[in-house]
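Anyone able to model this chain together with adenosine-5'-triphosphate?
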Amino acid sequence: MDSVLTVKGLTGGYSPRRPVLHDLSFEVGAGEMVGLIGLNGAGKSTAIKHILGLMQPHAGEIRIGGHTLAEQPDTYRSSLAYVPESPLLFDELTVEEHLRLTGMAYNVQESLYEQRSESLLKEFYMAPKRGAFAAHLSKGMRQKVMIMNALLARPALYVIDEPFLGLDPLAIRSLLDKLVEVTKEGSAVFMSSHILATVESYCSRFIVLHQGVIVAQGTLQDVCRAAGMPEDRSAGVLEEAFYRLVTGKANGGGEGAHHHGTFG
Ligand SMILES: Nc1ncnc2c1ncn2[C@@H]1O[C@H](COP(=O)(O)OP(=O)(O)OP(=O)(O)O)[C@@H](O)[C@H]1O
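re: yes, here you go
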């Protein structure tokens, strides 16, 4: 498996004296969807800001497609698309103008642009709003425009922060279907979410971040093992493993979880 995103020994945060992230190491490979899960304040958004290059690591390094941001800034940036938790759009541009702008920024060929933008407008039920100004869209529609922009660019790596908030059930389904499609085409998806049931069904690997430390990572089986749970393939097992890892307790009492990372 080719690694698209490689994070090695990342220590970082807002002040060098008080790091928020401690020695994080993980990879996201081509064709993989990896879920980043953790409580409020665990450090998920901070980790994402480091990956985007908005913050400098205190120690360690981050590579996309084998390069650090410092080595190849243009390649690094054009290899990734980011969907933030709260949509950031230009109020005075229309839906279609946002797509056009992204197409130009990512050098999407004209014929591919036409094809992709038309199908995205349909798949996200946004065709009737193609000419609407961003300022006149609903919150969920604004989020859909961010997602459509990322999908138009078809980067090697998608970094998606809590994508399901504010989306209606059809939009969530459209997004998940598209993410499955792009991973089949070889892209890598790194997604942070509190919706554990969805993360469990769609991601092949998980990273459990707790107080800035990776307390478990790997397949569902790896995470369950780190949580001291027997192998169990029933739905909802990720939530139980997560609960044990972050509280050190089993649901309804029981022995403590092991706070050791597994690297699968
Ligand atoms: N701009 C900032 N300046 C200083 N500290 C910050 C800043 N943003 C976040 N923090 C701190 O960094 C830690 C991690 O926050 P972060 O936003 O990464 O958490 P998160 O896992 O994304 O949480 P949530 O699930 O609530 O979005 C918290 O202790 C938070 O107070």
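The beta strands are 3-12, 21-29, 33-37, 59-64, 80-83, 157-161, 188-192, 205-210, 213-218.
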